[in-house]
Amino acid sequence: MVDKNIYQADRETAWCPGCGNFPLRTALSEALSEMDLKPEEVTMFTGIGQAAKMPHYIKVNGFNGLHGRSIPPAVAMRVANPKMTVIVESGDGCTYGEGGNHILHNIRRNLDIIHLVHDNQIYGLTKGQASPTSMAELITPVQTHGVNAEPFNPVRFAVGMKASFVARSTVGDREHLKEMVKEAKKHKGYALIDIFQPCVSFNKINTYQWYNKRVYKLEDHDPTDHAAAMKVADKFGDEIPIGVIYREEKPTFRERIPYLKDKALVDRDVKVEDMEYLIKEFK
Amino acid sequence: MVDKNIYQADRETAWCPGCGNFPLRTALSEALSEMDLKPEEVTMFTGIGQAAKMPHYIKVNGFNGLHGRSIPPAVAMRVANPKMTVIVESGDGCTYGEGGNHILHNIRRNLDIIHLVHDNQIYGLTKGQASPTSMAELITPVQTHGVNAEPFNPVRFAVGMKASFVARSTVGDREHLKEMVKEAKKHKGYALIDIFQPCVSFNKINTYQWYNKRVYKLEDHDPTDHAAAMKVADKFGDEIPIGVIYREEKPTFRERIPYLKDKALVDRDVKVEDMEYLIKEFK
Amino acid sequence: MDFNIVIAGEAGQGLKTVEAMLTKTFSRHGYYLFSTKDYMSRVRGGHNFMQIRISDQKLEGPDEGIDLLLALNEESVEIHRSEMNEDGTMISEIESDENDIVYIDAKGLAKDVNPRAVNTVFVGAAFKIMGLPTEEAEEAVKEHFADKESIIEDNLTLLKAGYEAVEQLYNLKGLGKKDDRMVIDGNSAVGLGALLAGLSYYAAYPMSPSTGILHYVASKQEELGIVVEQAEDEIAAINMVLGGTYSGLRSMTGTSGGGLALMAEGIGLAGVTETPIVIADVQRPGPATGLPTRTGQGDLLFAVNIAQDEFPLMVLAPKDQEDAVYQTFRAFNLADKYQLPVIILSDQFIGDGSKTIKEIDTSDMKIERHLVDPAEVEGEYKRYKYTEDGISPRAYPGQLEDNVVLSDSDEHDEFAHIVEDAETRNKMVAKRSKKMAKLKKEDLLEPDYYGPEDPDYILVGWGSTAGPLTEARKMLADEYKVGHLAFNDVWPLPTKEIEAKAASGAKLVYVENNAGAQFDRLVRSETGIKADYNILKDDGRPFSGREIYRRFKEEVSK
Amino acid sequence: MDFNIVIAGEAGQGLKTVEAMLTKTFSRHGYYLFSTKDYMSRVRGGHNFMQIRISDQKLEGPDEGIDLLLALNEESVEIHRSEMNEDGTMISEIESDENDIVYIDAKGLAKDVNPRAVNTVFVGAAFKIMGLPTEEAEEAVKEHFADKESIIEDNLTLLKAGYEAVEQLYNLKGLGKKDDRMVIDGNSAVGLGALLAGLSYYAAYPMSPSTGILHYVASKQEELGIVVEQAEDEIAAINMVLGGTYSGLRSMTGTSGGGLALMAEGIGLAGVTETPIVIADVQRPGPATGLPTRTGQGDLLFAVNIAQDEFPLMVLAPKDQEDAVYQTFRAFNLADKYQLPVIILSDQFIGDGSKTIKEIDTSDMKIERHLVDPAEVEGEYKRYKYTEDGISPRAYPGQLEDNVVLSDSDEHDEFAHIVEDAETRNKMVAKRSKKMAKLKKEDLLEPDYYGPEDPDYILVGWGSTAGPLTEARKMLADEYKVGHLAFNDVWPLPTKEIEAKAASGAKLVYVENNAGAQFDRLVRSETGIKADYNILKDDGRPFSGREIYRRFKEEVSK
Ligand SMILES: Cc1ncc(C[n+]2csc(CCOP(=O)(O)OP(=O)(O)O)c2C)c(N)n1
Ligand SMILES: Cc1ncc(C[n+]2csc(CCOP(=O)(O)OP(=O)(O)O)c2C)c(N)n1
Ligand code: SF4
Ligand code: SF4
Ligand SMILES: [Mg+2]
Ligand SMILES: [Mg+2]
């Protein structure tokens, strides 16, 4: 087992004291260590936001790109290096708001990635506007009379799209979260974990207590039963189920590119000579 | 009833002979005429693509904007003028591909619009690449070994998101299509109609025959039953149901902005004098 | 009299409340203010500070050196020590022998009253030290915490406690309330200008440092009955706003660099569809995410060349918070008159900073929509009718009886129908470019010139450097014959004045908050004139007049 | 010998097949070719045409006037009649008395053989009329319809039928196969250059007229084992490509104006993360959707100023199809060497057009990845290490044992961690700008000059106007002392040669395919030099040498 401390960079974070991002990071470090992954064997792709600062605070390879664009850069790593563990991670605003089109289409691609969404139901870094997952009644400096739209339920959306692995967890239950990360890693294909992560600075509705009171662990649920999963996914009120909600094995992105086999494209040996024949084709 | 010929502009179209866009336009003209809407009472917002050229070939107000961006410009019309009938219309690539993020979030907004998607399962105007709804086995100049992703099922996606009205129709059944348009107009809130529209030039799989053989009209289906709707939505194979698949009444975008009431914002009478008080607030 | 106060501490410590109370109070005492914010891209922790400069004279920018430091945490003393002026004082909770530190047991005093109101102790102490009475501060407390009785009570108690805990050191005195002034930050100023212009629809996606505009207009949406919509992304925002104008509403969006990049295609759409819209770009340093909460003027050439191919576009840069109100108002009228997108280039320096300005005078503010008069439309409506000046009659759907309104992003004919032939293309390009010609003739603002008639040097700036440059010019005036040319409109570029000045033989010293001397390059591309000197700064911090003065002496007149 | 053939008809009538067969055949006969496509933004109907110019001399562009028209529908005769050269001939299905029309009953001949192969009748007739034997055309038919025996059979039959149905009118003769040449379109040329450079990952969203690159590289993906991914939108495409390079793959995307606009933010990300990528912008006229299938050079200033703030960026424009191969190859090496984005500004004129070029010579083509040597990394890896020339060691994840690779879009320190202090910011800005300084010194291509040593006029162009300008210069050479300066690299701008030329006193005549004289403005902003004359064209159609010649006489030497 890789020493879990290796992941906890000693850098000061820009997170607020008490923020749900801390227990999330701890759970992730522990999971990585328990899965025996060395830092250089993991690559994390993030967007912009408080959550998205993660690669600065945990020691793995990291590409900290643009707001909303955490997923697209990860596609190539999947073809470049099949052995790399790929984590895509960002906030709810980044992932479901600005980046909505990418999650939509990458569910279809079924990339073999672990997708962690810090769902604090708020825009943290920009100081408290509604995110897609904000409750309708949230009052903010922009949403002065509540949100003009229905809240987005990422789990129902993903199950509705038959994403190949959909789970929900909470930083309030670190063991559970760790378990989910490990399950996601085990799963072949796209694995979304929507994680409740209280924002103590701006979200005064969805607090630790709010989540703790509501979440319960799924039992007797068959995640391969789509209809059952839809029902579970729809629950977001006084009771909110956590756990693996839907799972379906299907061809991954790599598998749909048959000639890749188990080649790491990054090892491709290119010689101009070998491609001379392309020139001849224009004669 | 408004004369239906008024809608059929006499301009030459850029569509291919035999294209499914023609019967679609006819059905729409007839529906508009039967609903007794005058051209100036209807505004159509489109993107870019063969389908998106519609406002040039039918006489209503039209905003022919950017590829992928058919929905966002329509939002304002909903607050500007509650009496205007608003149609958003474009191709499957424009709507579900480039514009995916907008349909995702406008389902949440529940704008009172009729949303017509010409679903030919192909990129027509750019000459035959896969669209999000293309079958996995489609071979194109880009998808040389089939599509690298699972096909997008717009109906399942929208029902999964609990869009307030979701229907499927086909240009192969003009009466049905007309009926759906009228139902969508009647519905208060967002109404998606995904319309099978064969592309005779590039899609050699999903032909008129292909659709005709498969589609059947929904009977004994309760569109207010979400679980039932999900089941129906999932069917896309040898049998494909058409009709209203899901319907749920819920607050519209306008209704979530309580102070708008039934005011047309376009009639707002603004006087600088009335806003002098804003200046005083900075004293 | 010129006094510089800095409030320093961690993010989340409530610096903004302290600043608000001080600002209100000084203003009520009749002082001119200029405040800037230096904060990190985080919500809690780190080191943030706000500078409030006060004077009995009009202020145009920040200054260096601190007279009074309110150190809300210990670290702040260390960080700012080197910037203290000779007679400067620090208020701190550190017990120290050093005689520039005034010790105050703020936490102790607040403990039993209301620990969350600890900052108000600092405010009280500050007023005592400066020699100002507290009445106005009490008013400010009451207004700031309006509606919350018990909180007001606690704060008043702690204000007094702070006041009593320290000795008077300075003798500032109240100057008496001046009723013809106001204090406003640049983001609110842009929002205010827009609201006065009849803004009915604002769609945007939050992005520092532009979010202040969004927050301000949203705070007024209910009372004005307008709609402020948070878009799912900036692409949606710009297209929403285009739809807003098309639907008949005065519409606007605001963002910063990265968001502007995402709007590029939509701004071109406004160009070809001739849809008037206003876009505020509150600049921050890039590239990409860059320094999210800092200031810069690095988007100039990007804004001027914002999308593929060419189309009528106007870019203007407010000089300060006051100008931001007027320029934003003007932007709407010009957008409507010429049916084009207008980009307002603001920046974090003026956007987040506040200034005492003359009360906004609305007597010359006229909302000019330039919509078609339905009575003048004969037969089939031509949205893109060829006219002498290139401006076609604009209507919104439903405005004309028996006529529809069509708008198109392809090249099109007068009816907005798609065309591909060379002839119509050429005609439409010519029609659109005529609008720019007319704009240049009728509405372009030449830069303001300040200074002697026969200067040896001219400081050239655009937008928000105007204030610091004004101060720098005054400091330099004793030693040099130096003028100042301050540009508002940057695209199309007004060229007359700069050409005249260049011809006069004065040395041109361009001062810009970017690394690449973008304005110099723009002026050169339009006129051939090149700066003799470039004073550039690109570290995310604004210029002060003193800094420009110093760099002038170091880099120009060596 | 210079012979101009036009194939005209509706979209969907199979013009491309006719063009392909003619092109192959002429090429096998040893002719030089230059073909352009003029097609509408639709799939069927409308009026499209392709021009094939053939000669025994090297060709550099299209010409005006038609020697032989293959009118695949009746309308085409009317449309092109006025362009016919004096001895020109039209092959048409119209029975007519006019002696410039050769009647052929193509449909009748095809009816019983294969109605879908009707066009091949025209091909056969064309060869007979020109006096060329059909062997090579038979070969071309066989290659074009490879794998489909019966179709080949039908086409051979109809080829012969067409051949026999008409009389010989010209006497072109075969010149014998030349083995050192090839015919290639500009889009394939860019794709070929990329593949030769080791492209492993191409992600793009279809957009005319850039889709040809996507199609070409996709057609090779399986055999080369590389990945071509159709993105959900252009924002995904550019970010995918950044991820590709980060993951260790040579990566590229291609698009046109509107897509480039959507990529703007991502290109800035490449700048600040110092991620080498190559972006092809195959220009079409805008603004916004504009004229989707036409040509133009309207994206120059947009590309040069592509995103907020400033960052190292290179923009280069291939001069023709041959150059496109070499320049694309070079773009990858330079992107990798300087760790920056390189934009290739192509356009529909060369992208969709084909040309006979010298066979690509790979002997000087070396793939230079400039990745770090793992042995040289000591201790903790610094992705953004300060170095003398600003270039830091670049590694991809998994390349270094016991070390991780971090990339960041915020301003950052050497380890790629977020910073906000002014000092690090200044250092990083300086580091990045050093790369541009080095690039300018070591790798920038000055423009090529052709013509007399002491010209009175110099034609100045960039990118794809090079060919037409070459022809124009030759036509003008009899009457004027005229030279031609052809730019490849446009950003950073190479200034030595143009400065020298301007100093020589020759009049500068800029020829550009845009309305705003963008290159003139760019050159002026960098050097102060201004065009004496601007010959501009912005109607979506390319220049021909003859047109430039004429306009020179009309507008320059009046
Ligand atoms: C293109 C662009 N638009 C907007 C922003 C500003 N921005 C930064 S983070 C953020 C929202 C963050 O919310 P979320 O993704 O939920 O992350 P959190 O801070 O809550 O963890 C926004 C809007 C940006 N950086 N780039
Ligand atoms: C930003 C941008 N990207 C790409 C394009 C090119 N483009 C035009 S239409 C189209 C696809 C059309 O497909 P679809 O929306 O399904 O419409 P159809 O032609 O099939 O009716 C594309 C990719 C564009 N115009 N703008
Ligand atoms: S703003 Fe909220 S989410 Fe961000 S660090 Fe602070 S508490 Fe956490
Ligand atoms: S390309 Fe296809 S969808 Fe487009 S007009 Fe032709 S047949 Fe219709
Ligand atoms: Mg969040
Ligand atoms: Mg389609």
Classify the secondary structure makeup of chain C into a structural class: alpha/beta
Output the helix-strand order of chain A: HEHEHEHHEHEHEHEHEH
- CATH topology assignment of chain A: Rossmann fold
Q: Which CATH top level class of the largest domain in chain C fits?
A: Alpha Beta
Number of helical segments of chain A? 10
- Which spans of chain A of ≥5 residues are poorly predicted at pLDDT below 50? none
User: What hetero molecules are bound to the protein chains?
Assistant: thiamine diphosphate, iron/sulfur cluster, magnesium ion
The domain tally of chain A reads 1
Please give the CATH architecture of chain A. Answer: 3-Layer(aba) Sandwich
Q: Output the radius of gyration of chain C.
A: 25 Å
The helix fraction of chain C, in percent, is 25-40%
Q: Compute the gyration radius of chain A: what is it? A: 20 Å
- Biggest sheet overview of chain A: 8 strands, mixed
Provide the residue-averaged pLDDT of chain C. Answer: 95
Strand order of the largest sheet of chain C: 6-5-4-1-3-2-14-7
What CATH architecture label of the largest domain in chain C applies?
3-Layer(aba) Sandwich
Q: Which structural class is indicated by helix and strand composition of chain A?
A: alpha/beta
Q: Can you summarize the main beta sheet of chain C?
A: 8 strands, mixed
Shape of chain A: globular
InterPro entries (chains A, B): 2-oxoacid:Fd_oxidoreductase, OFOB, PFO_beta_C, THDP-binding, TPP_enzyme_TPP-bd
Domain Thiamine pyrophosphate enzyme TPP-binding (chains A, B): 51-195
Protein name (chains A, B): 2-oxoglutarate ferredoxin oxidoreductase subunit beta
Cofactor (chains A, B): [4Fe-4S] cluster; Mg(2+); thiamine diphosphate
Can you give me a brief rundown of this structure?
Chain A has 283 residues and is an alpha/beta fold. In chain A, 30% of the residues lie in helices and 16% in strands.
